[in-house]
Amino acid sequence: MIKEENITTEATKTDNKQAIIEIKDLHKTFGKNNHVLKGVDFVVYKGEDLVVLGRSGSGKSVTIKCIVGLIQPDKGEINVFGENILELPKAELNEMRVKIGFLFQSGALYDSMIVRENLAFTLRKHKRDLKPEEVEKEVIEALDNVGLSEAIDKMPSELSGGMRKRIGLARTLILKPEIILYDEPTTGLDTITSREISELILDIKHKRKTTSIIITHDMACAKLTADRIIVLKEGKIQAEGTYEELEKSEDEWVRSFFE
């Protein structure tokens, strides 16, 4: 369904793996006493789908919003492709952001635009030299990639929750990002649609060779998509491992996610 692409990056190598994202000692406090992140450290390797679990308020979404600059951390480093994005000038940061796709919980579509216009708007914003026929071709291809080419002239209000998620993902994919950050991609969806979205995440990984962080409460999604899982507790990493390893954790709190 999705076309193969050769994506190359320059990143540090650790144990023969390329570290695409490196988070070091990340801290974030809101107000005076709401300490959301308290020294988070982790690495995401090239081609890996890393799932982040944690209770509400544990800092999962704040972490990935820091990676794309939607939230500024108080302390720490965020290295993406070997560059500390917290030190990049605005122009270079904007170039980096094009390589990072972000799928919001809601899909974040513009309600006043039909699907075609939603995708074309994103494309024109970043690739202004494209001709109208080239934009149309890219829009059709992106929709075909998520199996919704027939929705091209529909308004967001005409779409189901699962369709909105797919369109949101198509809009993310249209810029051909090397990294995709998924914020609760299956929340609010029924079991069957949730599995379809999870399978689409896997399809994207295998065909586009993307590197992803997936924030989720959906353990079925985590089991299907995760190469590795980290568990956040009160702003710190409590555990790390595969689904099977954490399912058998000696830590009762960690194990409770898998019961």
From TrEMBL:
Protein's UniProt keywords contain Nucleotide-binding: yes
Molecular-function GO terms, alphabetical: ATP binding; ATP hydrolysis activity
Residues annotated as domain ABC transporter: 21-259
Keywords: ATP-binding, Nucleotide-binding, Transport
PROSITE patterns reported in the protein's UniProt record: ABC_TRANSPORTER_1, ABC_TRANSPORTER_2
Keyword check for ATP-binding: yes
Domain of life: Bacteria
Pfam families for this protein: ABC_tran
PANTHER family recorded: INTERMEMBRANE PHOSPHOLIPID TRANSPORT SYSTEM ATP-BINDING PROTEIN MLAF, PROTEIN TRIGALACTOSYLDIACYLGLYCEROL 3, CHLOROPLASTIC
Annotated protein name in UniProt: ABC transporter ATP-binding protein
Biological source species: Flavobacterium chungangense
